């Protein structure tokens, strides 16, 4: 059966076998809102489920985890089957659907089927992402697993990212007198890369990893300046403190995180979202690094576009300044 035929079958089964009207609504339960306000309309439903997972509890979380563990199987399941496999009830599955913004299970199932069908048509590599990497796996297998996970994370990030927010961030940085960048651990490496890129095109930018130095710098910011905080979880206390201090001084604040309802996102003026695909030996915090770099690369290019003449002149001057430190062995050999 082709991917198109599988999708058609899933749609017909979802609509015909699981009418939403047959499922009693649970009006006594509070449905957690896990819509991604910053995301694009019609974006990846699996990315939305993954980003909203920390906000779910109990039965709703079990439904989400089951869908993420095997999206293709979820797309083939009726609402009763999904409820049984997750140890919940059809009413709980319906509440989960509404929390995602779907009218009922038929719509959610259709969206998942469409997403997994597209993945199958692009080569089928996503079907094996959920497999754990074993200590005895050959490097060829590990490489394929990493490539699959990172590629899916890039696609999910593109689906979540609000380009309007990127434009707002780029405009603010292009006009800023100075830019502070905050991050800890792996996020500090990502922030340092962004600082280097901005510095090369003439943007006065500093990257701070020590909370004392970062807070001191944030206290000197003012209206017209920009502060960017990088944190996959959005819960790193030091980064939140520095962004909050910068905000209190009137600076425009930007959060780069994977969780739209995180404390860092809540305190920031602009939120840029990333998605992750964890693998064995590389949990979410590590797998987030490549999507973070992609988003910041996009932001950097957007800033360079808006400061084209200044950026071009600065890049030429800085490239010339370091040219003498490049080896000429290649030229000599030729």
In a nutshell, what does this entry contain?
By secondary structure, the protein is α/β, with parallel strands linked by helices. It has helices at 3-17, 45-52, 58-69, 71-76, 79-86, 90-99, 105-121, 139-160, 163-175, 186-200, 211-219, 237-248, 263-267, 284-287, 289-306, 308-323, 329-333; strands at residues 179-182, 205-208, 226-230, 252-257, 270-273.
Q: Please give the share of residues in helix.
A: 55-70%
Distance between the termini: 56 Å
Q: Estimate what percentage of residues fall within beta strands.
A: 5-15%
What is the radius of gyration?
Answer: 23 Å
Helix-and-strand structural type: alpha/beta
Shape: globular
- Mean pLDDT across the residues is 81
The largest sheet is: 5 strands, parallel
Order of helices and strands: HHHHHHHHHEHEHEHEHEHHHH
The number of helical segments is 17
Q: Give a count of the beta strands, DSSP E runs of length 2 or more.
A: 5
Summary tags:
single chain; alpha/beta; 334 residues; 7% strand; 17 helices; 58% helix
Walk me through what this model shows.
- By secondary structure, the chain is an alpha/beta fold.
- It is built from 17 helices and five strands.
- It has helices at residues 3-17, 45-52, 58-69, 71-76, 79-86, 90-99, 105-121, 139-160, 163-175, 186-200, 211-219, 237-248, 263-267, 284-287, 289-306, 308-323, 329-333, and strands at 179-182, 205-208, 226-230, 252-257, 270-273.
- The protein has a five-stranded parallel beta sheet with strand order 2-1-3-4-5, sandwiched between helices.
- Helix 10 links the parallel strand 1 and strand 2 (205-208).
- The chain starts with a helix and ends with a helix.
- Residues 1-33, 35-42 and 121-127 have low confidence and may be disordered.
